[in-house]
Each structure stands twice: as C-alpha cells, then as structure tokens.
Amino acid sequence: MLIHPWDGAADDTEWKTWLTAHDFGQLVATGRGRDLPVVVPTHFVFDGDTTVWLHLARPNPVWPLLEENPRALLTVIGDYAYVPSAWNTEADPAVGVPTSYYASVHLECDARIIDDPAEKAVVLNRQLGHFEPGSGRTPVPAPDSPDPRLLPGIRGIELTVTAVRAKFKFGGNKSAEHRRRIGAHLDDRAGPLDAQALEHLQRRTPPES
After folding, report:
1. How far is it, in rounded angstroms, from Cα 51 to Cα 171?
2. Which tens digits make up the pLDDT trace of 6-26?
3. Does residue 207 lie in a domain region?
C-alpha cells in the first residue's frame, strides 16, 4: 500500500481509534512456496492495542497456510468515497482527475491457532460481547447448550500485531479551499459512505481564518 507523507496516520491513536470501530476485514495468509495467498473475509475483535481475535470454520482453506507459516496480514478498509474528476480540479472541470478517498489499516501479525475448547469459548464470548452486548445470549459453553458440540467445528486465531501501515487518503496534498469545496460536494451527494469520508476530510482540513 502506497502511503504518501500527507496520507499517513497522525499518530497511533488515530488508526487505533478508527480500527476499534471497524471490525470486518480480510485475513491474508501466504503459507510457504504457494502461488497465491488465501484471503478470508472475516469479523474480528481488536483490543485497541496489539491483539486481534477471530474464529473460522475448521474446513477453511487458510489453516494449512497458517500452519506452514504463522504470519498473516489483516487488512481493513472503509469510509471510502469516489471523487469525480469535475470535483478534483483547481481549474477546468473538463480536465480534472478523479480520485478515491478512503481509510485503510494493514496489520502485520504473528498468528497463533487456538484449538483448546476452553480458549475457543473465551474467543467466542469476547466476540459476542463486542458484536451483541446485552443481547442475553448464553455464554459459551453452557450446560445443555449445543455449544460443546459446535466448538469442534471451529478454530480460533489470536493475532499479535508486529507492524502497522495506516493510510487516510483524504486530499491531504490539496489546499484547504480545495478540500472544503470537495467536502461541500460530499455533503450534497450524501452517498452511502460520504458522511464518513467528509468527517475525515473536515478533521484534516485547517479551519478558515
């Protein structure tokens, strides 16, 4: 991922805060000596610092690759918006250059596979607590619940973050006036993620003097 100086996270707090609110990404494992990696779309839970947990079905094709090489990349992208050519120009809209705004975080990780039933239950309960707090869902496992029979069908993963690449591409190389103009367009268009992109853009735009 290309990260220009004007696209980088302001500090670790920015990407950690953003990632805490974005809990669906792609787990990428390369294995050893393979032609292509395995890419798995998945929900996950981030502890806000250096650890991620998730679980996948036992038949998932990612397991042999993680066993060969316990390294993985977790990629997350969001708050994206297409910026038409007519918006992204300082002069003639007919010669503008379109671009994309987006936020993305890549976590380089050491992966530990979790097969112990009690530890898998901890992972599941952690995810339930994150995704459906207060739902009343019975903790895993519980007496007379189907969970003990379901646990063998999954494996857990604990990812320890060893390096991070974070990109917040929201016109950081453009003038404040240019960014405010694009912000007005995003506000008017009000597409699916335009409000989120606008929030990033406004946070990174100097206030009018």
Report:
1. 31
2. 999 999 999 999 999 999 999
3. no
- Structural domains in the chain (count): 1
pLDDT digits (tens, 9 = 90+) for 122-152: 999 999 999 999 998 888 887 667 777 789 9
The model's pTM is 0.93
Q: Which domain holds residue 19?
A: 12-174
Contacts of 141 (CB under 8 A, 6+ apart): 117, 121, 147, 148, 151
For residue 59, what is the domain's CATH number? 2.30.110.10
> Whole-angstrom Cα distance, residue 40 to residue 159?
14
Q: Please give the single-letter amino acid code of residue 35.
A: D
Is residue 76 one of the residues assigned to a domain? yes
* Domain assignment of residue 190, yes or no: no
DSSP letters for the chain? ----TTTB-SSHHHHHHHHHT--EEEEEE--SS-SS-EEEEEE-EE-SSSEEEEEEETT-THHHHHHH--EEEEEEEEEEEEE-TTTS-SS-GGG---EEEEEEEEEEEEEEEE--HHHHHHHHHHHHHHHSTTS-PPPSS-TTSSHHHHGGGEEEEEEEEEEEEEEEESSTTS-HHHHHHHHHHHHHH--TTHHHHHHHHHHTSPPP-
Q: Is 202 among the domain residues?
A: no
With tokens 């669906």, the residue in question is 24
